[in-house]
Amino acid sequence: MKAIKDFENKKVLVLGLARSGEAAARLLSKLGAIVTVNDSKPFEENPSAQALLEEGIKVICGSHPLELLDEDFEYMIKNPGIPYANPMVAKALDKGIPVYTEVELAYCISESPIIGITGSNGKTTTTTMIADVLNDAGQSGLLSGNIGFPASEVAMTASEKDKLVMELSSFQLMGIDRFHPHIAVITNLMPTHIDYHGSFEDYVAAKWNLQNNMTTDDYLVLNFNQDLAKELANKTQATLVPFSTREEVDGAYLSDGNLYFKGEAVMAADNIGVPGSHNIENALATIAVAKLLGISNDVIAETLSHFGGVKHRLQSLGQIDDVQFYNDSKSTNILATQKALSGFDNSKVILIAGGLDRGNEFDELVPDLIGLKKMVILGESAPRVKRAADKAGVDYLDAKDIQEATQIAFREALAGDVVLLSPANASWDMYRNFEVRGDEFIAAFEALKGE
């Protein structure tokens, strides 16, 4: 960890805890900052705040008092999920206080080069693939960021021999200033989180912040399946490395069933360990990064062929009576479910879908639903999902929760079928997050397996 003086004796407000806020508070304290933590959760129900207080860090819990910002803070580090319209954040900005997310802190102290991965879909899988390939090649890729390991926490112990393989959300990327990855990947850009950003243009702008400080000595890996990426490619100083499943590009591409990098065959597409056309894109992005780092084709092919997926992202749970179960709880939008379905024969699939009602219809999903064996539908958005099923000519059944949906789906399945949880909706109508939803699916699978 770099012994920086930027925050020494500076008053810093950490707004919002969770894992990233807790990590940021500890790091700032270690850097000599005068830290105050403010979290909405009451102190008596807040183990993180209790632990920080025991370590000598000031904590204010239960509300976000605006008068707190009259204490002449020089920086605010906010939880990525807190919107900029939040009164505390808005007041900080009005007062000219820089507002960062903790990935900016991670960059400031990191001795390790950073590989930053963002995108609307596929970023968790791609991040994990890249780290696995690096580790199998002996290059020590450390998972960090939005994937569940706070970047500032990982950066504290990483050395110059490591590489931080950092998943980055649009929320995190809105709060950076000097952040500078050596290699950056944007998997794709699709309309999502518009409720947070206000418009697709603002969402894209947040993602594009990833490359703001990159130079010609750095590499930006872009998905040339998208015209938008081709347009953005002209607006960066970084050295461009495209990937595509549709055309031969000066980077990584699919041709005649094989994955290539700059004309050199790396592996067969069918050998990737997880199904779906989207995972071919993820593998191509991974290959681009790996080849930039000098990793051999043999290591890349071996790692990707044994890649078992990421928990909650088209995760194979196994079989019961020759019925295969896949947990794709992280598919919280239509595109993600479209990509999941692309890897299967619809006539064998029983799809579990539905969740938070965001007011959108599912007409875009209709072509991908055609031919499904059956659907099990649940959640607030059930009436809208049912309309899509009707348009696709797919029979469906109702369920009150994931446990019941899993039981119904298995009851309807025959040997050779697939039970796929890929909701196309966020989870917040019924579950705290997609992880909890996916964990209930896993638990339901295990219960059926034990019967």
From TrEMBL:
Name of a matching Pfam family: Mur_ligase_M
Segments traversing the membrane: none
Reactions catalysed, as given in the entry: UDP-N-acetyl-alpha-D-muramoyl-L-alanine + D-glutamate + ATP = UDP-N-acetyl-alpha-D-muramoyl-L-alanyl-D-glutamate + ADP + phosphate + H(+)
One function term, GO molecular function aspect: UDP-N-acetylmuramoylalanine-D-glutamate ligase activity
Enzyme Commission code: 6.3.2.9
Principal place of residence: cytoplasm
Domain spans labelled Mur ligase C-terminal: 312-424
Pathway recorded for this protein: Cell wall biogenesis; peptidoglycan biosynthesis
Positions with a binding annotation for ATP: 119-125
Superkingdom of origin organism: Bacteria
EC category: ligase
Keywords, ordered alphabetically: ATP-binding, Cell cycle, Cell division, Cell shape, Cell wall biogenesis/degradation, Cytoplasm, Ligase, Nucleotide-binding, Peptidoglycan synthesis
Family the entry assigns: Belongs to the MurCDEF family.
Function: Cell wall formation. Catalyzes the addition of glutamate to the nucleotide precursor UDP-N-acetylmuramoyl-L-alanine (UMA).
Protein name (database record): UDP-N-acetylmuramoylalanine--D-glutamate ligase
Organism: Streptococcus dentapri
Name of the gene encoding the protein in the UniProt record: murD
